[in-house]
Amino acid sequence: MKFRTIIVMAALIIFSVVVAVATQSSGHEEVKLDGGNRGMIDFPHHLHQSAIDDCNTCHAVFPKVQGSIKTLKTQGKLKKKQVMNKTCLKCHRAMKKAGEDTGPTKCSACHIK
Predict the structure, then answer these.
(1) CATH value of 28-112 in 3.90.79.10, 3.90.10.10, 3.30.70.20, 3.40.630.10
(2) Is residue 64 pLDDT above 80, yes or no?
């Protein structure tokens, strides 16, 4: 009976590790985003995944394809600063107002020239 309990516990641990790795492996850890004239943005993708939990918060606006922000801007489907103002800063400022740890709320903190 003891052996069976050990096997079940081992299976649960392995399952938990697999789920954790699969969840964390969704997408790149870091992503370079086109920041327009202000410079590129090093975006900590996995950090945002763990903080937000819902990919559609961002990806309802732009697809999960490298360069999609620039492409959508070129096509006129995304307005200049739409991602920054309507998604990034809106969330960061709301978290700051709620007294939660958050990312930067100033442009120069993310854009790299």
Answers:
(1) 3.90.10.10
(2) yes
